[in-house]
Amino acid sequence: MGEFELIDRHFKRKPAFARPQTAPKATNSIAQPVVLGIGDDCALLQPAPGMQLAISTDMLVQGRHFFADVDPAALGHKALAVNLSDLAACGAEPLACTLALALPPERARDDAWLAALAGGLFALADAHACSLVGGDTTAGPLNLCVTVFGQVPAGQALRRDGARVGDDVWVSGTLGDARLALGALRGEWTLPPERLAAARQRLERPSPRLALGMALRGIATSAADLSDGLAGDLGHILKASAVGASLTAEETTKIVAAGAHPSGAGAPFDAETLLRVALTGGDDYELVFTAPPKARAAVRAAAQASATPVTRIGRIEAEPGLRLVGADGRVSPLAARAFDHFG
Amino acid sequence: MGEFELIDRHFKRKPAFARPQTAPKATNSIAQPVVLGIGDDCALLQPAPGMQLAISTDMLVQGRHFFADVDPAALGHKALAVNLSDLAACGAEPLACTLALALPPERARDDAWLAALAGGLFALADAHACSLVGGDTTAGPLNLCVTVFGQVPAGQALRRDGARVGDDVWVSGTLGDARLALGALRGEWTLPPERLAAARQRLERPSPRLALGMALRGIATSAADLSDGLAGDLGHILKASAVGASLTAEETTKIVAAGAHPSGAGAPFDAETLLRVALTGGDDYELVFTAPPKARAAVRAAAQASATPVTRIGRIEAEPGLRLVGADGRVSPLAARAFDHFG
Fold first, then answer.
1. pLDDT of A311-343, one tens digit each?
2. Cα four-point dihedral sign A300, A306, A309, A313
3. Which among B39, B57, B92 has CB closest to A147?
4. Nearest-CA residue of chain B relative to A96?
5. CATH fold group of domain B168-333
6. What are the CA-CA distances from residue B67 to residues B15, B99, B203, B336 (Å)?
7. For labelling alongside A258, which of A140, A196, A302, B198 has CA 20 to 30 A away?
8. So what's the ipTM on this one?
């Protein structure tokens, strides 16, 4: 199978994917954001009037971001999910994506593997009305580079530089599952099979928090997605906003993946390990965001509207740096350091 | 040097690159297309009102698209150039780009190499007012994935599917130099040193035909850039437009890199070899386009306005397929086949 046949067979879909929730009944070319999809030198997008285009790109490399024996459907899902998570962190609505793919010869020949990869990507893309509009395919060590395009009303994007002293610090969902699964797969520790399956699902098929991100427009003062660990990603917000933060150990411990608690069935971790996993483990793809205390009801309403649990875990302060405050009031500094691919 | 320091040092520029030729004197945030650049979860773009966004992505892999000992400045140039060439083929004006980069550890440590790579990319980006607005950096086998964003007035993009029976077929510049250089570097043939240097320049530092592409809006009926060879890329137009074409051997031979002609100094190729190189050699990044005969004066005016030579080499016909017509009137079929990465 040649390059063009491979693209036609696995990645080109006709008719072009329609966006059911926003497609108008009348024929209005402005309202359909994908003007031209796969098969030309460029794809053409038309964001709605008054919208800005949000763009993010992430590259996944075998041995670095996934194991060689990865489930290809999970890989297709994750390659898009980590990018959609960046749109979520900006409060943007997904429109489209491109996929550049380097394939070793044995993968390029493996029709079932390619069909599963495309299937995983398209299932998530369809769930978020995100059309695959273009890409590139070449021979080479396995590498997936997805670029996503979303739209957000001008001036309403959630950014990293908007946190203000006195703001609350919030986190969506629970943290640590992805790191617990990775550690188990690497042999750092063991997890009961049922627990591993649940944690692995979060590692391999993260759910980008798009509904929450859009619901937080005009409410949150800053946001970032948790790809490199809470300490590091909150650290990006603190640096961009030129502020610091204190987290309460009690609240922060609460958001550690519930089933992994020492009180949970078969989870042999002490509280300190769990806290470390939650603070520095990556790949959770939850959102960390800030909002003023007067917006607490609005934050809870946004969380409810998007069916996404949120927890208030700390407060933005003028003093630079990131601190953890224990139940006894003791303050310990936290290194606000993200995962570093060359560290 | 860590990942974030690497990005800060080589790829983040402050103040954000301003677009000298379009930046208005008055403060008008709409007129500045890059709202937010490197350093957040997403970049934010605001195309001008009435504009569509043209998007293309290309991935370059070591050993496939460039040699391990490639000049890093040339690599940075080419990674962007091949993408800008896709914008040219659509008649789009460049706005911004992203760069996802997988680096082996020895490259991530090599400050001079990285500075040269970034320098090559930024020099071309600056020449076309194309801001680097985001990206990703990871460890892995050397791989560069650039995605470019341009704007084009709604409905005016040059596409592959607009060629009509009776249209002329045009090509910009000359063809074959990149393939001649590649063959010499691979040891398939030898070229005199001066000739090799000139051909290698075209292989390693192609000039995307952006000015011509924009000048052809409203004139050309279809266009594609020549990345995979004239026969293949014109083949894409023929397939998308459901037509065929005949090229005249005499005119087509004229556009073969002038200095490589048998009459040229030290070029030992026969006419047939040169024609084959021009038709099937890739990496030229010229444009092939079609326009009705009544637009010939307009095409020549667009070529002159953009200081880009163009040659009329054939005609679109109803009969499918691609043919070459000799001076004696003999018609030989040409395989309209593009370079295939898995062929």
1. 999 999 999 999 999 889 999 888 766 555 555
2. negative
3. B57
4. B55
5. Phosphoribosyl-aminoimidazole Synthetase; Chain A, domain 2 (3.90.650)
6. 34, 20, 12, 28
7. A302
8. 0.88
